[in-house]
Each structure stands twice: as structure tokens, then as C-alpha cells.
Amino acid sequence: MGANATALILAAGEGTRMKSALPKVAHRILGVPMVSYVVRAAEEAGCERIVVTTGHGAEAVEGLLPGVECVRQDRQLGTGHAVMCAREVLEGATGSLLVLSGDSPLVRPATLAALVKAREESGTGLSALTARVPDPAGYGRVVRDEAGDLTAIVEDKDCSDEQREIEEINTGAYCFDAPVLFKHLDRLTTENVQGELYLTDMVGLFVAKGLGVVSMFVEDFREMLGVNSRVQLAEAAKVMQRRINEEHMLSGVTITDPELVWIGPDVEIGRDTEILPMTFLMGATRIGERAVVGPNTRVTDSVVADDASVDSSVLVQADVGRGATVGPVAYLRPGAVLGPAAKAGSCVEIKNSSVGEGSKVPHLSYIGDAIIGKGVNVGAGTITCNYDGYGKYPTVIEDGAFIGSDTMLVAPVRIGEGAVTGAASAITRDVSPGALGIERSEQREIEGWAAKRRARHERE
Ligand code: UD1
Ligand code: CA
Fold first, then answer.
1. Is the pLDDT of residue 416 over 90?
2. Residue 258 and residue 135 share a domain
3. For the chain, what is the domain count?
4. Does residue 11 share a domain with residue 145?
5. CA-to-CA distance for 155 and 435, rounded, in angstroms?
6. Domain of residue 167, residue span
7. N or C: which end of the chain has fewer CB within 10 A?
8. pLDDT of 212-262, one tens digit each?
9. Which of 27, 248, 363, 457 is an active site residue?
């Protein structure tokens, strides 16, 4: 690819067919906005500069693209008009200009690089990417002459009955000779059914002017699915899901049922890890080697280290140490950190707390704003009472402590090293190292009471 290739990504449209308050290109696939996939593909294809035209919901779209150069198209008068709006900022761009649609998130970098190469090597003014799709309805059709050369692109709504039968479609990705495009852009007119300035008309114009047009056929049409409706959004997500899962499987991850596992594009997974059905790994999640994640698990922006296991749980911004076990049905919220070989068992919720190496919180507990040392056992039903309705307070449990079942740890409170708390105690004061902290009334015994009660009921 030429060293100075630029990409212009069109993302100003409303996407009426989405029936949404959100601009179309902001809709997400596996947690990532559609337009971001296109930006990344252009980056990975080696584009030196990337410009995005925004318009409908511009602030929302620009907010999704930190650090990306955006130019406004205030009224959406068509794809040709969108390019006109970028003319000023692209003034002086030489060489190749890739024009892409923000609603085609499946495009591969290698395809874009090949499209640029096709134009540069043929020395033409324009290379257009075409495909054959099972249902061409809605796409612009590729019209060729008897010699098979591309002569025009005709929009679906402007097609004659005969043209509508054409199966080859315009993918909406082109590579132009930038100065040549901008020189002729003003020749576009709105003489079409939609009254818009169609970028696609540049193809016919380039042919008429003898500026040279080549086309490149994309083998896998799924790469160029344009998302106009939520039905197509689901189709595109399915393609992306399979693509990502296959990459992981080919690099050594076992996915028992890839149709039932959804993994975001930025997730990393180590070798010999097993991902079980109904598992969703999203955001900047990293899973180590030999881990087992799932079934029925959602992990977002979290780390799961080597040899750890997570069963039927939800993790958000959590960090699970080497060989640690989570679940079934645990909820690890932001700032939950499990040390090596630690355990967060069934129905356990942990937030903003660290659980030291080998420490266990096996059943039915809430741990919030706590620091738990090494080798601690937290009995079933234990709760850190960290919130008094106004502020949040810390609990510290030192190494080797044993927290009896159903202990209420009323924060701020500290349990010393090796200390024990009696079951069902409400601990409101610090417990010294090695001591027993107990808070409960003494058990009484009333002899024969049960027999008397039974007799009373039988009489009545
Ligand atoms: C477009 C092509 C069609 C092609 C299809 C491929 C035109 C006229 N038609 O049709 O030939 O088969 O893509 O998916 O180009 N946009 C703007 N400003 C506008 C209008 C659109 O930025 O004024 C953006 C949209 O946000 C979208 C992209 O351009 O990302 C394509 O627009 P869309 O309305 O989806 O065009 P299609 O009808 O799909
Ligand atoms: Ca489209």
C-alpha cells in the first residue's frame, strides 16, 4: 500500500431502518460499536490517516471515537455529499483515499490493503470492491458492459426490473486517487429517486471521463454485509462471533459449543483453556492458560489467571488469581481481587475487596471494601456491613483468621491475625490477634418443654 493512504469512513447517516434513538454506527457488535470495527480495519490495513464523517448523533458517535479525526456533515444529503464535507480537511491529500461505510463492520484489513493495491498497481483513478450476496435487495447493483468492464453502479431504488436481477453488488468500499476524486466530485447531481448526492455515481463519471476504473471481487460476501436493520445487525454479530471463536480455537482454546459462546474482539485467552457454553467474554478481558470458564458465565473487563475456574458467575472489572475458583453463582464486582488459589463460592458477592492467597469465601456472603489476608476462612452467610446509608467503611481480616458463620462485620472493623469470631456474632469492635470475638446471648435449656407443647396441641 502506498505510504500515504488515507481512509474516509462515512458515518453520518441516521440509519432510519434501525428504528433507533441511537445513530446506526453506534450500535454494538460484541460490545464494540460498528464504526470502531471499520476504524480498526483501516488502521490495520496501514492507513496513515483516518477521518470519519459524523452527522446524525454526531456527539454520540464522536464520543465513541476518542483520538479519531472527525468532520461534520450537518445535513445528510447522501454519500457523495458526505465526501464533499470532508474535502476541506482532506485538501492536499495525495495518493490513495479509501472510502468506507461505517455500517460494514466485518471488512477485513487484508481486503482493504488489496483494494488499495488494485488501484495503485493498475494506475487507475478508482478501484471498487464488489461482491455477490444471496439477497441483493437494498444494495447498489454493479452494471458491466459486454466486455465485462464495470460501467456504473445503480442504486436499488433506481434499478430497472432487469438491473434489479443483477446479483453482483456494490459493497460501498472504494479506493480513489484522492486529487482526482476531489477534482470531479462537484459533478454529482441529485437526479435520482432519493434526490441524494450518490457517491456511487462517481463510478459512471470516472468511466465516462476515462479516468480508469477497476473492480475487485471479494470472495467472502459476509465480509461486506452492510448493516441497515437490526436483523442485519444480528447477522453481522453472528459472523463476527464465529470469526473470533475460530481464531481462538485455532490458537489452542477449547470451545465446546462455539454457537453458544460470545467473545469480544479484544479478549485474550491462553492455550488449553476451556470455554463452556453460554459464556460471554467482553471488553478488555484476559483469560490465562488451562483455565475453565463457564458454563453460564459473563466476564467483562476482567482478568482470570492460569488454572483458575469460573462457573455460572458474573465478573465485572475483577481479577481472579492463579488457580482460584469462582462460583457457582458468584458476582465479582469492580475491584474484586482474588489471590492465588483463593475461592469465592456459591452465592457470594465481592466488591472492591481483596481476598488473599488460599483464603476462602465459600458460601452466601457479601464482602465489600474489605482486605482479607492469606489463609482466611469466611463462614457461610458472613456479611461485611460496609455502608451506613451515608459512607462506606473498610473491614480488615488479617492472615489466618476464622470468621464464624453468619458473622456481621460492622465496618470499620479489624479482625486480628489468627483471631476467631463466633457464629452469628455482630462484630462492632476490633478483635485482637488470636482472640475470640463473640457477641450472642447465652443458650438456655428448658427441660421437657417440647413434650409439654405436643401434649397441649393434642388436647385442643
Ligand atoms: C450504500 C451504497 C450502495 C451499497 C451499500 C453497501 C450509496 C448511494 N449507496 O447504500 O450502493 O450497495 O451502501 O452497504 O452510496 N452516510 C453518510 N452521509 C449520508 C448518507 C450516508 O455519512 O448523507 C453514511 C451512512 O452513515 C452509512 C454509509 O454512509 O454508514 C452508507 O449509507 P447508507 O444509507 O447505509 O447507504 P446504503 O443505502 O446502504
Ligand atoms: Ca448501508
1. yes
2. no
3. 2
4. yes
5. 81
6. 6-224
7. C
8. 999 999 999 999 999 999 999 999 999 999 999 999 999 999 999 999 999
9. 363
Active site residue 56: no
Which residues keep their CB under 5 angstroms from ion ligand 2?
Answer: 103, 226, 228
Model confidence, pTM:
0.94
Q: Find the ligand nearest to 73 CA.
A: 1
The cell 476504524 sits on which residue?
Answer: 39
Domain identity same for 287 and 206: no
Same domain, 401 and 257: yes
Ligand found nearest the CA of 225: 1
DSSP 366-401: EEESEEE-TT-EE-TT-EEE-B-SS-B--EEE-TT-
Mean pLDDT, the chain, whole residue set? 97
186 plus 38 within the same structural domain: yes
Q: Is the CB of 101 under 6 A from ligand 1?
A: yes
Residue 176 · residue 97 · CB < 8 Å: yes
| Residues sharing a CB contact under 8 Å with residue 175, sequence separation 6 or more, in sequence order | 5, 96, 97, 98, 99, 115, 116, 118, 119, 126, 127
Kindly state whether residues 211 and 261 are assigned to the same domain. no
**Is 345 inside a domain boundary?**
yes
| Alpha-carbon gap, residue 251 to 449, rounded angstroms | 69
The number of the ligand 1 atom at minimal distance from the alpha carbon of 78 is 23
- Ligand 1 in reach of 228 Cβ (< 6 A): yes
Report pLDDT digits (tens) over 320-369.
Answer: 999 999 999 999 999 999 999 999 999 999 999 999 999 999 999 999 99
Domain assignment of residue 458, yes or no: no
Q: Does residue 459 fall inside a structural domain? A: no
Same domain membership, residue 268 and residue 214: no
Is 152 a member of any domain?
Answer: yes
pLDDT in tens, 198-214: 999 999 999 999 999 99
Mean pLDDT of 30-55: 98
Give the H or E element holding residue 22.
Answer: none
What's the average model confidence in pLDDT over 365-393?
98
Ligand lying nearest the CA atom of residue 86: 1
Residue having the nearest C-alpha atom to atom 22 of ligand 1: 12
Distance 323 CA to ligand 2 centre (A): 47
